[in-house]
Design a protein that fits this description.
The chain is α/β, with parallel strands linked by helices. Helix 7 links the parallel strand 4 and strand 5. The protein is built from 15 helices and twelve strands. Helices cover 39% and strands 15% of the residues.
Amino acid sequence: MSSENYGFSTNAIHGSSLKDGYGALVTPIYNSSTFIFDSTAQGAARFALEEPGYIYTRIGNPTCAALEETLARLEGGEAALSTVSGMGAITATIWTCISAGEEIVADKTLYGCTFEFFEHHLSRFGVKVHFIEMTREEELRAALNEKTRIVYLETPANPNLKITDIEKTAKIAHEYNPAIKVICDNTFASPYLQQPLKLGADIVVHSATKYINGHGDLLAGFVVSDQETINQIRLVGIKDMTGAFMPANEASLVERGLKTLEIRMQRHCSNAMAVARYLQGNPKVEKVFYPGLEDHEGHDIAAKQMRDFGGMVSFIVKGGREKAAIVADNVKVATLAVSLGATETLIEHPASMTHSPYTEEELEAAGIAPGLIRFSVGLENPEDIIADLQQAFDKI
């Protein structure tokens, strides 16, 4: 039976072809900064990419390579690149794909650090970014021009779970110019729930700190694409520009977490749906954002391009920022902390935390209300998560 016909968990567990010389069940941790050449000719051939093999861990490491092979398979890509963090994946990719004088079209609702990189830093290097409402076809078409090199989106978007049609977005961009790179941040969905490359995206980026690892104990990122693109990001974005490689110890931990991704995501999704239904009936909640709810604006698109609806729920507390803070400050099972995708339920206030780089006007334009709470639903018993929220709401 070909691995192409294996199920998701089977590939997550057996996705690497790397075998060590001692028959180890688990991929060994290769804690070596550099690798030995048999001859100067061999070293020269590896530097020229004429011979496979390892040179220096910043460029590649066997532990990381095993994990990259598995992740590429799960995302439906030819190759993957592991990085030290999600922002390492994003910045290495952008620096490789863009030059001064060129332009990016990005959705206006993004993770705060991604937005800050695009809005406040790329402009210092002669790169212009157009922020649009990516769900509106007319805005995308109007923003594209001969200088556009990248179209960038998150779906579901951080923090309001906005859903963008990946297939339609990629089709519009590629019809305008096939050379445009459509980049999708797939962190909120994970490769178990969504595979953007199969929907027409060119590059997928992840903060593997989140669901892929799933245990809140490390930072990691990934880029997945075709082999040529990954080679370029590895040799330019990582080797020369950011140095944001994933250490072998982290790669080993991510590999361990990846093996349980399917069963973890199933529990995250079922718990999140239960929480979303509870919040819908809470009189102190103004609005609930969860793609699995029938009244979510992008529900039909999410149902088309996702296997399930994810573990993230956001909601607006009536009374604005002050009342939202009361809820966030009084949870007991949930933990007040940024990040997401861990076994523990996490709660945070985007406007003052993860999305603080946005101005008040930019927050409003991105649909991030002052009373919005982002809730990463963990793996605890759902009745305990709901009871915890209820007692926190009772403090209002």
